[in-house]
Specification:
- With 111 residues, this protein is of the alpha+beta class.
- The protein has one domain.
- Helix content is 25%, strand content 14%.
- It has three helices and six strands.
- The strands form three sheets. The chain has a two-stranded antiparallel sheet. Strands 2-3 form a two-stranded antiparallel ribbon. Strands 5-6 form a two-stranded antiparallel sheet.
- Strand 5 and strand 6 form a beta hairpin.
- The longest helix is centred in the last third of the chain and has 13 residues.
- The chain is globular, with a radius of gyration of 15 Å.
């Protein structure tokens, strides 16, 4: 399953309301499968950490928006929800730097 990993300061339901018209959401309806609330962390920095961590599993896709312009959505990853949840826990614990994501096993491995 593919998951979009992103950070927003607003309401997630409002953010995805027009997903099928937005190339960020692959021009398709999406389903919210999990949300996380983290305190005392800069949202953009968190998103950068998550994207870098899961980079080996980033979806490599190009599609055309409604104007025919090529778009490469960068926030979609071929990772199981359990791995995302585990990374969030590692960030909360302050141990994320001790792990990496292994796309072969679809799990976190200790460095």
């Amino acid at each position: 399953m593919i998951h979009k990993i992103g950070v927003t300061g607003g309401d997630v339901k409002k953010r995805i309301a027009n997903a099928k018209k937005d190339p960020t959401y692959l021009l398709a309806d999406v389903e919210i499968v999990a949300t996380f609330k983290l305190a005392n962390i800069h949202g953009q920095k968190l998103e950068t950490i998550l994207h870098k961590f899961f980079d080996p599993a980033r979806l490599d896709l190009q599609l055309q928006d409604r104007f025919g312009i090529a778009v490469n959505p960068k926030e979609w990853f071929l990772v199981p929800l359990e791995a995302i949840e585990e990374v969030i826990e590692k960030i909360k614990e302050g141990t994320i730097d001790q792990f990496q994501y292994d796309p072969e096993s679809a799990s976190l491995t200790r460095l």
